[in-house]
Amino acid sequence: MGLATFARVARELREDLTAAQERDPAARSVGRVEMLLTYGGVQALLSHRISHALYEAGVPLAPRFLANVTKILTGIEIHPAAKIGRGLFMDHGAGIVIGETAELGDDVTMYQGVTLGGTGFARGKRHPTVGDQVMIGAGAKLLGPIRIGDRSKVGANSVVIHDVPPNSTVVGNPGHPVRVDGRRPDGPDADWAHLPDPVADAIRGLADRLTEVEELLAELTGRRPEHAEVRPLKRRGGPDSTGG
Question: Which of 9, 19, 54, 120 could anchor a disulfide with 59, C-beta 3.0 to 4.6 Å?
Answer without folding.
Answer: 54
